[in-house]
Design a protein that fits this description.
YceD, two-stranded antiparallel sheet, 4 helices, mainly beta, rod-shaped, eight-stranded mixed beta sheet
Length: 190
């Protein structure tokens, strides 16, 4: 466990001062925060500094502060089938317990590797948001469920190519015989 000092002015750092350490005390918040950098997988992601709408509840419990919430953010990327730009929105739910200290995490104070801790009265919500969004992003985003994609031969969009679009496929083993036509009248008279 590495303890770092959080900057209280950072957008994703939230103060729990008004909760104290009184189990049962609760606060709801609906901040709009700028999206962190590099929040993407493959062909789609949340643009840097895009508005992320949060609806969160902070609740003091015996071991720490339980954060429960929903986040909505815009998505920008490209269709994995036709490569057209696409935009949509993602909504994710998350819940995480921020322990007061390693002693509160597990009996004997041996906090787990993935446990999150308060830095004094501050907590950093960015890693929780990042994990929730990255796990929910589609690995192969599509502009529509019926997107036909691109022609594998020439790269034209199949939706625009028309029903008669096609390519003559010649087996490479017979390619050397292409153009070889023998007109033999004796075979026709038979």
């Amino acid at each position: 466990m590495t303890q770092r000092t959080l900057d209280p002015r950072a957008p994703w750092v939230i103060s729990t001062h008004d909760l104290g350490r009184r189990p049962g005390s609760m606060r709801k918040m609906t901040p709009v925060l700028p999206a962190p950098v590099d929040l993407a997988v493959g062909m789609i992601g949340v643009p840097k500094d895009a508005d992320v709408e949060l609806d969160i509840r902070l609740e003091a419990v015996m071991e720490g502060v339980l954060v429960t919430g929903t986040a909505r953010a815009p998505l920008h990327g490209e269709c994995s089938r036709c490569l057209d730009p696409l935009t949509s929105e993602i909504e994710v739910d998350f819940q995480e317990l921020f322990y007061y200290s390693a002693d509160d995490a597990l009996p004997g104070g041996a906090g787990g590797e993935d446990d999150l801790f308060l830095d004094g009265e501050l907590l950093d919500l960015e890693p929780v948001f990042r994990d929730a969004v990255v796990l929910a992003l589609p690995l192969s985003p599509v502009c529509s469920d019926d997107c036909a994609g691109l022609c594998t031969e020439c790269g034209v969009k199949l939706a625009e190519a028309g029903p008669d679009h096609g390519h003559e496929k010649l087996d490479s083993r017979w390619a050397s015989l292409q153009g070889l036509v023998v007109d033999n009248k004796d075979d026709q008279e038979g």
